[in-house]
Fold this protein.
Amino acid sequence: MNGGIELQPITPSPADILAALRQIADAPDTADLAVTLHDVCVHLLPETRVDLFVLSKSTERLLITCGKQDLPSPPVMHCGPPFIAWLKQHGCQADVIPLMVANQLYGRLIVSQRSADVRRHALIIVNQLAPVVGLWLVAHRHLIALEDIEEQLRITQERLRQLEEMRLRATLAAGAAHDIGNLFASVLGHTQLLLQTAPPDLHDDLKTIEQAARDGHYLLRRLLTIRSTTHSSEATTSPVLLPALVHDALRLTQPFWGTRRSVTVKIALAPVPPVRGHPADLREVLVNLILNGVSAMPEGGTLTVRTYSTGERAFVEVSDTGIGISPAHQSAIFQPFVTTRETGSGLGLSVSQTIVESYGGAISVSSTPGRGTTFSISLPLAHTTDMMPDPPALRCAAS
C-alpha cells in the first residue's frame, strides 16, 4: 500500500515478452545489448534496476547497468556479493538470477527494486529473459573467438602468399644468377686474353675489369650456394688489409665519380692491421658506400675515405658532404627495400650490414641533413702476420 493506493504492476503480454527476447537475441554487440536491455527494462520493468555481471576466466565484472538508475555510480567491484551489499546500503532489495547455459555459469543478472510490491513481478519477467541473455553471452564469446581465428587465418594466408612470392623470386633470381655468372666468366676470359696483347698503358684498366668480373662471379656463387638468411663466411675468410680494399673500391667506382669535376675524392688511409674476411665481400660493402656517397651529392661535394685502428678493431669511414639523412630515416636505412633515393633498390645497405656482421663487425651511420653523412665500419683484427702487399698509387681527386 502506498498512500492508500495499491501498486498494480503492468503485466506484459506474451507478445511483449517475445518481442523483448527477439531484440536481445538480435543485438550485434555489447553496446546494442545494453541499449536493448535498458529499453526492455523501461517498458516492462519501470521500477527495476538490472545489472549484468559476466564471468570470464574465473573473474567476474560488471558489464551492463540498465533500467531505473537513480543511484550514484557504484565503486569498482569484481563480484556480485559486494555489489548486492552496496545496493542494500542504498535501500534496494536485490535478487540474483544465474545465467546458466549447458550447466555452465556465464554470468549473473542482479535485479533490484526499492519497492517490495514489484519484486515478484520483476523476477518473473527477468527469469524469462535470462536464458536468452545467457545464450547471447555464449554466442558473443564464440563470435569473438571466431573473429580472432579468422584474423589469424588471414595473417597466416598473407604470410604464405609472401613466402610463395619470395620462393618464386628466389627461383628466378637463382636462374638469373647462373646465367649472369656465365656472362662474367666470358668477360673474365676475354679480359685475360686482352691482357696478353694490350699495350702496357691499358693493363691497369684491364686488371680492374678482371677484378670486377672475379668479384661479380664470386658474389653470384655466394647467392647460389647460400643456405640461410645469414651470410656464411667461415670457409672463405682470409687476412685482408682495409687500405688495399679501399683502393680497389675506388678504382671500381672511378667511372662514377672520376668524370664529375664537381666531386672530389680524398683518402686518409692510416696503416691498420689486417682483418679477416673475403676481399670480394668487403669490396662490395665499400663500393656500396662509395656509390651512395656520390649519389648523395648531386650538386657536387667531397667524398672522404679514411682508415684507422683502435684496440682490437680496425675502422673504415666513408663520408660525404651531400644532402644527409633525416633522423626519422636513419634507424630504418639498413632494413631491406628501404631507400631515400628514387632510383635505389633499398638492398645495398641491408646486404652490406649482413656482410659486415657475418665477419664479427658492425656498421653505423651518422648524418646531419644538409651537411652530409658518415658511414663507419668496424671489424675485429685478424691477428696474423700474413700481410698483403701495399696497393699501387691511385689518382683520387677530380678537380
Observations:
- The domain at 14-151 is CATH 3.30.450.40 (Beta-Lactamase).
- The chain has two domains: 14-151, 228-380.
- The longest strand covers residues 104-113.
